[in-house]
Amino acid sequence: HSPANMGYFSIGLIHGDIGTSWGQAIGWNLAPAAIGNVLGGALLVALLFWYTYGSDPHRREVLEKAGELVRSDQPARRRADD
Known about the structure:
By secondary structure, the protein is mostly helical. It is built from 3 helices and no strands.
């Protein structure tokens, strides 16, 4: 939402002072959105990777074998579809 809001803020500044300055626009819109995106993205991505791969070596081994099976099965499926 911050790119759209920054567009609205800049249009407002072009057409006259509407009570919002660039400092307010950045402080109340861009900075909170950027901080939220960085924290949310880092936490969500890290948590999803941790949940998927975990810290259990056995679970990682099972996931690696599953990935190998999928990769080895893909050429056979392509030939059958053609």
